[in-house]
Design goal:
The structure is a single chain. By secondary structure, this protein is of the alpha+beta class. It folds into two domains: 39 residues; 135 residues, 3-Layer(bab) Sandwich (minor pseudopilin epsh fold). The strands form two sheets. Strands 1, 2, 3, 4 and 7 form a five-stranded antiparallel sheet that branches. The longest helix is centred in the first third of the chain and has 27 residues. It is elongated. It starts with a helix and ends with a strand.
């Protein structure tokens, strides 16, 4: 009897994989590939969307704070980031001690483009905190509820960028913009 069992096992091993085993292997490989593609996928677009949402949320926070506390806020942009300012007397002061309205730097592959009154604003390449007293903010958030109308694009400038638009009443609209 042991020889019959041994020869049956040898014969089965020599035939190769069954169709079921091959299908299970293909399903496992396809699941792994799908998960990898989804995790890597369109990561740039997702980052742009998240960063634009973050900016919109911070601007809404500044708008609420301006209204409730009768303060004037402003934003200064450079190519890879932005800073919030508060009016102190007659001078704009960089906000440094606020966890939410602190200076934000974006990844190097994401660039900010700012439009005021339909015209593209030339943004500085770098943010130089030592020149904060000479820095002129580009967007103002007033205690009256008014905001400088603007259009901001975050992205690589080549494919699709995220766009954040504000009217004079500070109503923000976010959308994806092609090319």
């Amino acid at each position: 009897m042991p020889t019959l069992y041994h020869s049956f096992t040898k014969a089965r091993c020599a035939t190769g994989f069954t169709l079921f085993e091959l299908l299970v292997t293909l399903v496992i490989i396809s699941i792994i590939v799908t998960m990898t593609v989804l995790s890597i996928g369109d990561n740039q677009a997702e980052r742009e969307r998240r960063l634009t949402e973050q900016l919109a949320t911070l601007m809404e926070l500044a708008q609420e704070s301006a209204l409730f506390n009768a303060e004037e806020f402003a934003l200064h942009f450079w190519r890879h980031g932005y800073s919030f300012y508060r009016l102190d007397g007659e001078q704009w002061q960089l906000i440094m001690n606020d966890a939410q309205l602190r200076t934000r730097e974006l990844p190097e592959d994401i660039v900010i483009t700012l439009y005021l009154e339909g015209l593209k604003v030339k943004l500085p390449e770098l943010f130089l905190p030592e020149s904060e007293t000479k820095t002129q903010p580009q967007i103002f958030i007033l205690s009256s509820g008014e905001t400088t109308p603007f259009e901001i694009r975050l992205g690589n400038g080549q494919d699709t960028d995220m766009e954040l638009i504000s009217n004079i009443l500070g109503n923000l609209t976010m959308k994806r913009r092609d090319g």
